[in-house]
Amino acid sequence: MKLAAKLMLVFFAIVVLLAGVAGYFAVWQGFTRLERQHVVRAEEIARQLRLQLQASGTSRVPDMFVRVLQQNGNQWEQLRVRWVWLDDNEAEPYRPLVPVDRLVRVWDGSIETITVRDPSGVRHLLTYCPIRLESGRLGGLELAESLQSLDDQAHTTLIAGLASIGAMSIAGVLVCWLVGVRWVGRPLDQLIAKTHRVGQGDFSAPLDLKSRDELGQLAVALNEMCSQLDDQQQQIGVETSERLAAMEQLRHADRLKTVGRLAAGIAHELGTPLNVVSGRAGLIASGKLSEQEIQQSARTIKAEADRITGIIRQLLDFARRRSPQRTQIDLREVARQTTQLLEPLATKRGVHLIVEDNGHPVMACADFAQIQQVVTNLVMNAIQAMDHGGNVCVRMGTQATAEDSGKVPTTCVFLSVEDQGAGIASEDQEHIFEPFFTTKQVGEGTGLGLSIAEGIVREHGGWMEVQSRVGEGSRFTVLLPEQTG
Questions:
Q1: Residues 357, 332: contact at Cβ < 8 Å?
Q2: What's the rounded mean pLDDT across residues 61-67?
Q3: Residue from 86, 82, 178 nearest 136 by CA
Q4: Which of 96, 154, 364, 442 could form a disulfide with 27 if both were Cys (CB 3.0 to 4.6 A apart)?
Q5: Where are the alpha helices (DSSP H) in 287-330?
């Protein structure tokens, strides 16, 4: 209804303007017509007066003027005609009603028309027609007529205009109310409600407007847009599900690849406890041990079996497919379990894993298994980057990000993996998170590890940073929003 009200106000403004202009021109035309009549009458009387003067040769102009008026009889009703002297301040009855100094044009022989008000406030139209006598004196005719009737007509016109505007206003209100509500208000309300539903993601319930105007066309276009958006939303949902499934497949394949790499180190790690179990079991079976020695051997077998079970459980837990589940996790526990899992592989390559822990919890809201996969990929890459052994240091803590960094969190937790390997060339650093990009030799990597890790971190609302110098090593840092409380 706001649009209908605005249209109604514009309509009223145009009506008022047109009525005012029409009334003004009507009054102005009436005044102009009366002024022209004055001039015509003054010229006619002056012509007759000049003829009388030429015929009689007398200089008694006032008497001659009276005879001319008598000849015209009642030709000019409501018009008062006088002879006046215009060359000085002549005393009554021949002094003009207007001071002589205001009658400038009569000195040039031109007719002059002036509007004045009498003491009662009534307007009068005065017309002066100059006549110069043979004696040299300047006289003339003064035509005076009251403008009361014209003012009354203007007042009547104004009242009639206001009445017409009032009548049109009432009719306009009724028309705009009835037509505006039916043809504009209701369709607009339906369009606005539909737009709100679209904004909330509801593309159902198409509009059914019967009108064939622009609002009806807009409703048809909106229905078509909603239909297309609904189809695209369903398509995007299917594609997103397929993309998530493919991504999870890649991540699971990456975990299985890591498990394969761990197999050699874990096989060596399991060899020692299996030898201990086998030896102790042989001693017990020989029957040469005392009861106390048998108990001691049994406890040793139990401890080594638990050790083997723990190693295998860690490996199976890492390889098992899990649905994402975000909880409050301590990055220290992630680092501890990951280094324990990779310790056999690191030892085999002569690499020492170091976890720096300041004793304070480093909490984040994340999926434990996914973050462990990230850390595993980073530590595995660090181990493989050191062909001659060395140290891999895992650090974690809390830090504040720069305000101009463009990142959402201002305070975050971090976990960094630093190695003493060959480093990464500067021209390769901007590509290391791209899928299938790798600097390893053929057969050592697919180029998906860092891409998968970076995707997991980004899904957790964080980001990854890398600092590396050729020949000095690399440091990869995972930054996640801090989880407090």
A1: yes
A2: 62
A3: 86
A4: 154
A5: 291-319
DSSP state of 442: T
Burial classification of residue 331, based on how many CB atoms lie within 10 Å of its CB (0-12 exposed, 13-18 middle, 19 or more buried): buried
Is 227 within 8 Å of 219 (Cβ atoms)?
no
Average pLDDT for 362-372: 88
**How far is residue 338's CA from residue 146's CA, in Å, rounded to a whole number?**
113
- Measured from the Cβ of residue 214, the count of other Cβ atoms closer than 10 Å reads 9
In angstroms, the CA 45 to CA 68 distance is 8
pLDDT at 355: 92
Q: What is the DSSP string of 363-384?
A: EEEEEHHHHHHHHHHHHHHHHH
User: What would the two tokens of residue 77 be?
Assistant: 């009703």
What is the Rg, in whole angstroms, of the alpha carbon atoms belonging to the chain? 55
Residue carrying structure tokens 């007759």: 48
Whether the full predicted model's pTM is greater than 0.70, yes or no, is: no
Q: Contact 417/386 with Cβ under 8 angstroms?
A: no
Between 311-320, 321-330, 380-389, the lowest mean confidence (pLDDT) is in: 311-320
Give the model's pLDDT for residue 92: 67
User: Which domains, ranges and CATH numbers included, belong to the chain?
Assistant: 2-155 (3.30.450.20), 207-321 (1.10.287.130), 326-485 (3.30.565.10)
pLDDT digits (tens, 9 = 90+) for 204-227: 777 777 777 777 778 888 888 888
Q: Give me the pLDDT at residue 76, please.
A: 44
Helices (H), 180-213: 186-199
User: Are 280 and 297 spatial neighbours (Cβ–Cβ below 8 Å)?
Assistant: yes
